[in-house]
Structures are given as C-alpha cells and as structure tokens.
Design goal:
InterPro entries: NAD(P)-bd_dom_sf, Polysac_CapD-like, Polysaccharide_Synthase-Rel, SAM-dependent_MTases_sf. By secondary structure, the protein is an alpha/beta fold. Helix 1 crosses helix 4 (112-143) and helix 19 (583-595) packs antiparallel against helix 20 (599-616).
Length: 654
C-alpha cells in the first residue's frame, strides 16, 4: 500500500507538470497570434482557433514533452541541461504543430511566424515555472535569511547541483560564500553565491563574516585531504558537515538521496573510488538466481542492496537471525516490488535446512557471508562458533557442487592469516575447505574467496563502541597503544566481493589493496575531535592489555602466496597450495568434538590442522600461540561421517 501511494504521488506530479506545460502552450497561442497580427479581431478567428488549433498544439507539445521526458525534472536540482531539454522539447513541439496544421490537416490560416513566436514565448515561461523556487530561494537567502553563518568548501559540480537545496527557506544556516582549492575560481559566481577564496583565506573570512560552520562538498577528495581540512576547521572552532554526492551509491546511478550530515570517521579514511568493472559485474548477476547467506549482517545486507540494483532473476536472503532478516526484507521488499525476493529463515549449519534451500531454488550464484566474527565471543563459545562457521561453509560448498551452482564467493578475513584466535582459525579452515572443493569436486562450480580487513560501520565494529564511550563521558578503552588494523568501508568491501564473482578461475583469493594499517589510538583521537571533545580534558584513553587471541597487527597474506595485482585497488592469489583429500576427515573430526561441546579439544584440533598446512607451506613452524611442536600430530579417535560428501562426489562424477 505504501509503495502504491508513493508511485501514485510521483505519477500525479508528472501529470501536473505536463498539464501546466500544455496549458501554457494553449494560452500562448492567441497571444502569439495577437503579437503577429496587431489589432486582430479574435471573433473572426474563433472558428479557426476553437477547437482545431488548440487540440493540435496540445497534441504536438505533449508528444514532444514525453519524447524528451521534460516532466522528469526535479525542480530543486534543475540545471542548464534542464533548460536545454525543455527548449528542445518546445522546438520539437512547434515543428510538429506546424507540420500537423499545414500539411496533415491543411489548416493554413495562421501565419508561419506565429509558431515561432509561440515557441519563443513558451521557453522563458516554462523556465520561469521550473526555476521559480530557486530564484525565490536565492533572492530571499541573500537578503532576508538568518541562520548559522556558513561557508561551503568545494566549488565543483556537486556544489552547483546541490546548492539550491542548501539555499531553501527551511535550511538552518546562511551561506556567505564558497571556498575552492582552484585559484581560477576565485571571484566567480555559483547560483548567486560568490567564490571568496581558498583554504588560506579561511581565517580572514571567519573573522569578516563571523563564520561558525563549514560544509565540505568535495566527494572526490581523498580521506587524507578531508582529514587535513577537518582538523584545521576544528582547530578554528568551526562546526563541520559534509555534503555527499548524489552518485554515492556504488552501482546504482539512480540513487539520488543525498542528505547534509555530520562528518563520520569513514570520511577520513575514504580512498580513491574502487576501479571495479561495473558492466562485467552486471553481466554476471543480471537474470541469475542469487543466494546471500548472512543476509542480515553488515556485509550481507549491503550485498543484498547492491545485487538488487543489478536486476537478478531471483534473490534468496538467508539468515538465522529473525530480526536481522526481517529488517533487510522490509527495506528491500518495498523498494524492489517487481523483483522476486525470498527471505529464508534457516540455520545452514544444519544439513536438512541447507539441503532444503537447494531443493526449493535452482541457485546460480552464492555469496557466503554467514559467520560469527566477534573474536572475544567466539573465544568464549568455541564449539558453537566452530559449528556455525565451519559446518555452514562445508554445507554450502558441497551443496553448490552437487547442484552445479555456477559461482560461490566466500567472505573470509585477514584474521585467517597466522590466526591467533579461534575466529580467525575457523576462517582459515573455511578457505582450506573452499580450496578442497575447488580441487577435488568434479563439478562446474567456480569457487573464490575474498579477504577483508576490519569493516568500518559493521555491526560491533570499534567506531560505534568509541562513540558510545565518548557519549557516556569515557574513558575510551583500547587494548594496546601500538595495536594497528587494516580498515575498509562497506562499499569497498562489497565492490571486492562482487568483483570476485566475475572470476573465471576457480580457487582464487582476492585481497583489497588497503594501504597502510591504522593505529587504533589515532582513530580514537580523531573520533574524540570529531565529537567536539578534547583529549585528556573531556575524554581520557585507558589501555587494558591485549585480550586472549588478539593480535597486535594483522596481515593480508602468507609469504608463500604470490600476489598478482589486478588493478591498483585489488590483487589476487592464484598459485594456491594443494589440499590433501583427507581434509574433510579432519574437519569432520573437529565437528564431532564441537557437537560434544568439547572446547579445548576443538581448539587443539583446529590449530593442529592449520599448523599442518602451514608447515607444508614452509612457514615458521610455531606461529600459533596455542600449540608447540609436540602438539602437531592429530591422533585423536575419529568419529567421521562423510557420507554426504561421498554421495556428492559420486553423483557429480557419475
């Protein structure tokens, strides 16, 4: 009902625009005739004008309006291109009117110049109709507006397109001018607002206009540049807001929702836009049946949003969390009413539940984002976390092979490299499982994996924790002053996952080139500053010591893995290690102990298995803190049920 009401409202708005344009051309016809023939007696032309010419002029212009889509203009962001489109529409309408009148219906009583005069009158009248709100807003903002004295930083396309929304009467600030890094723009004018200078002019402009706030409108600026500007502005006691680009959506060019907002820590870490192959991604996803596991999580839900933009034939969202699945389903169901979307509430670590999904749907592509990822929680719940992370991956990979799924993409983690905690260790085992299926299952399925660093904005990430600690007066708690992490933004993560789905070679691992790792303490200081607080005066930082299984720094790949740069943004590992066919037996043994809730044995077996593979890869022998050299033999009793894997192999090879 809600979506129907919204569509009806949009439809009626377009009808109103076309109706007003049509009314204008009808009214302007006798005016044009009067201007052409002075002292005209309209009673003499009444039979000519009513109804034929009015009907023909309405039909001609309406056809032209719809052909050039002049009714699809958002008045608040109308631009020179809007004026060009309306002018071309009016010109086409005048031409059609002339052809219909003189050559189709042989109505040649009106001079040809009347058609031209009508066109020349319509263009400014229509422009006034479309731009009137902007003209009024600009005039009233300049002479009558009161609000927070503000400057806009950035004089590019983003500012010229969105300035009208900043100038409207409902805004809480008054814009005194624009700053831009280009010296050539100084003195120029953008919609009546003058470019006053650049960064070096900021102190004098603050003093002159008593500026209290800066709006950064530089969507192409790097995080480093934004970080530098924000620090300067905060030091000058200015409030700072940011105006994102309407095209901020990764793959959806029609997503125009843009809101002025406060600076986020993500803005300071933003990198150059990812060089992904959007067309290849679209070709891969379009008209395919796609399954996203863990669809209610941070990465999973963003994958859902971006996949729907790519027009899949069907999207299956799976999660074991009822609330998380309900939330993403509510969001996308109303936004994409024409796409077949299924929300499947199931635990895919359960054999029957996973099998049932593949029975219900003929799946083409799988994005496996389902996993427990919070290190301390996994460390306290080793058995259940191992079942969830390892068994769900085992079920998905084997069912994909059995059902000839085209592609499977695993979401892995940088914590899988030399893991010092159970979460990272389970992720590494999932990678080994993926490689095993790629090498040993004689199927058409293409398996690939993506390794992430920490994702900013994800559920349970460090940023929301710091913000909450600051709001409550501190202290901010950090485990170690030297601890560093790689960070990426959710759009970057999703871009890499979607790019991995285009891989032609099974078994490849993709890694985002993430630049330098960031010290957590530096991030905490940035957040303190962004929230208007002062370190050591308002908020202190308290160091608590590294937690069990926590690393001081993370890595993105092993020494034996040779990275091949695909683009400056991401690399891939294709010279993968060979996986022993007995891997499945070892993993099933781990799962048997996990089902008995034997945490210590599960931990031992997991790290023994990982060390065994890293030993074969000539890595330092003793990198795990849980094991020593004498613990590497797996000599525990086997209680293995590999019937499902054996059956899958038999069916595929047969």
């Amino acid at each position: 009902m809600k979506i129907n009401q919204e569509l009806f409202r949009v439809y009626m708005k377009k009808v109103l625009i076309v109706s007003i344009d049509t009314l204008l051309v009808i009214i302007l016809l006798p005016i044009a005739l009067y201007m052409r023939v002075e002292g005209i007696d309209f009673t003499k032309y009444s039979e000519i004008l009513f109804p034929y010419y009015y009907i023909l002029t309405a039909i001609s212009y309406i056809f032209a309006f719809f052909l050039l889509k002049t009714h699809r203009v958002i008045f608040k962001i109308a631009s020179i291109f809007t004026a060009i489109r309306v002018t071309l529409g009016a010109l086409l309408g005048a031409f059609l009117f002339y052809i219909l009148s003189n050559f189709i219906f042989n109505l040649d009583q009106i001079p040809r110049s009347v058609f031209i005069i009508q066109f020349l009158l319509f263009v400014p009248a229509s422009g006034l109709f479309r731009f009137y709100s902007r003209i009024i807003d600009s005039f009233s903002h300049k002479f009558f507006k009161h609000g927070i004295p503000t400057l806009v930083y950035g004089g590019g396309i983003n500012t010229s397109r969105q300035l009208p929304s900043l100038l409207n009467a409902r805004s809480e600030f008054k814009i005194f001018g624009i700053l831009d890094d280009s010296i050539f723009k100084k003195g120029s004018d953008i919609l009546g607002i003058k470019v006053l200078g650049s960064e070096k002019d900021l102190p004098s402009l603050i003093k002159k206009y008593k500026i209290e706030q800066i709006i950064i409108s530089m969507p192409s600026a790097s995080g480093e540049r934004v970080r530098f500007l924000v620090k300067q502005m905060v030091n000058l006691n200015l409030k700072v807001k940011i105006l994102p680009s309407p095209e901020s959506s990764l793959l959806d060019p029609n997503d125009k929702e843009t809101k002025l907002r406060d600076i986020k820590i993500e803005d300071l870490l933003k990198r150059t836009p990812r060089s992904i192959d959007k067309e290849l991604i679209r070709e891969t996803i379009e008209n395919k049946v796609v399954l996203v596991t863990g669809a209610g999580g941070s990465i999973g839900s963003e994958l859902v949003r971006q996949i729907l933009v790519l027009n899949p034939k069907k999207l299956i969202m799976n999660d074991s969390s009822e609330f998380a699945l309900y939330k993403i389903n509510e969001e996308v169901e109303s936004k994409y009413p024409t796409t077949e979307i299924h929300a499947v509430l199931a635990n895919i670590a359960d054999d029957f539940s996973c099998h049932n999904i593949f029975n219900r749907f003929k799946i083409d592509i799988i994005f496996h984002a389902c996993a427990y990822k919070h290190v301390p929680l996994v460390e306290d719940n080793i058995s259940s976390a191992s079942i969830n992370n390892i068994k769900s991956a085992l079920n998905i990979f084997s069912q994909a092979a059995k059902n000839n799924v085209e592609k499977v993409v695993l979401i892995s983690s940088d914590k899988a490299i030399r893991p010092t905690n159970v979460m990272g260790a389970t992720k590494r085992i999932c990678e080994l499982l993926l490689l095993w299926h790629s090498q040993n299952m004689n199927s058409k399925t293409n398996y690939s994996s993506v390794r992430f660093g920490n994702v900013l904005g994800s559920n349970g990430s460090v940023v929301p924790k710091f913000i909450e600690q600051i709001k409550t007066g501190g202290p901010i708690t950090i485990t170690d002053p030297e601890i560093t992490r790689y960070f990426m933004l959710i759009p970057e993560a999703v871009a890499l996952v979607l790019q991995a789905a285009t891989s032609k070679n099974s078994g490849e691992i993709f890694i985002l080139n993430m630049g330098k790792p960031i010290k957590i303490v530096d991030m905490a200081k940035d957040i303190i500053q962004l929230m208007g607080k002062k370190l050591d005066q308002d908020i202190i930082i308290k160091y608590t010591g590294l937690r069990s299984g926590e690393k001081l720094f993370e890595e993105l790949h092993f020494e034996f893995e040779n990275l091949e740069e695909v683009t400056p943004d991401y690399s891939r590992i294709s010279d993968i290690i060979q996986i022993d066919k007995n891997l499945i037996n070892s993993i099933q043994n781990i799962l048997n102990y996990a089902q008995r809730d034997n945490d210590s044995e599960v931990k031992h077996l997991i790290f023994s298995l990982i060390n065994q593979y890293e030993k074969e890869s000539k890595l330092p022998f003793n990198f795990s803190p849980y094991l020593n050299k004498n613990q590497l033999e797996i000599n525990h009793p086997q209680e293995i049920d590999t019937s499902s894997i054996t059956a899958a192999q038999t069916e595929i090879s047969g």
